[in-house]
Design brief:
Shape: elongated
Strand content: 5-15%
CATH topology of the largest domain: Rossmann fold
Structural class: alpha/beta
Strand order of the largest sheet: 2-1-3-4-5
Helix content: 40-55%
CATH class of the largest domain: Alpha Beta
Radius of gyration: 24 Å
Number of domains: 2
């Protein structure tokens, strides 16, 4: 094996946050890191490998899409401890645990704590790749949902307090006349507020507004 192949496990394939997903590999076994990195490279996945959980924590950017392949047993900080730390800081990167035969109960507990999946050694390459593919798809979906929610919240934040009050009553299904009575306004004033709400929230129907209202503070 060439020197470049030996170093492949600890080399990152260039990827800017928010563009190409990155597969993170955390395992204290050099041979395992090399093998997993070679596998990821063979299918075109950008990847970064670390020899310890603490090293991963020092370098990981939460804004970077991807997934984490994590050895469940490691010195200093175990895979489970790293999972707990990621959860503590609100990081939702999908975690795929790699376990030995005797670690299955630990892996099951990790799943209960929110791990995406686990694979038991020895495993087929395709089994791991299938899990990575699903994990990256889940991460992409969750990130898109978060981005969509942030977009809605940004629109909602542009509403005045009165427009928010009008919107809250509109999504309850109340007619302009009723909204006017509830807020002690003229019906014409409610119509103006309603039009501004629809414009700022970028919707054309009450049904669309109701859907967006589920994402904003009540």
């Amino acid at each position: 094996m060439s020197a470049s192949q030996q170093n492949i496990a600890d080399r990152a394939t260039a990827a800017k946050p928010g563009t190409k997903p990155v597969v993170y590999i955390v395992d204290d076994d050099d041979g395992v890191r090399r093998a997993m990195s070679t596998l990821m490279e063979s299918v075109g996945y950008a990847h970064v490998a670390y020899a310890s959980a603490r090293e991963f924590l020092r370098h990981y950017d939460h804004a970077q899409a991807g997934c984490l392949i994590l050895d469940i047993r490691m010195p200093e900080m175990s895979g489970l401890e790293l999972q707990h730390e990621l959860a503590r800081v609100g990081c939702q990167i999908p975690v795929i645990f790699v376990t030995g035969h005797g670690d299955v109960p630990m892996a099951v507990e990790a799943m209960k704590q929110g791990a995406f999946d686990f694979v038991q050694k020895p495993f087929r390459d395709q089994d791991l790749l299938d899990r990575v593919n699903r994990a990256i798809h889940q991460d992409s979906t969750l990130r898109q949902e978060a981005a969509d929610k942030n977009d809605v919240l940004q629109r909602w934040s542009t509403l005045t307090q009165r427009e928010k009050e009008v919107m809250a009553l509109i999504v309850e299904g109340k007619a302009n006349k009723v909204v006017a009575q509830d807020l002690d306004l003229s019906e014409r004033t409610v119509e103006i507020h309603r039009a501004r709400v629809m414009e700022k929230m970028q919707v054309r129907s009450v049904a669309q507004l109701v859907k967006l209202s589920l994402l904003v503070p009540q």
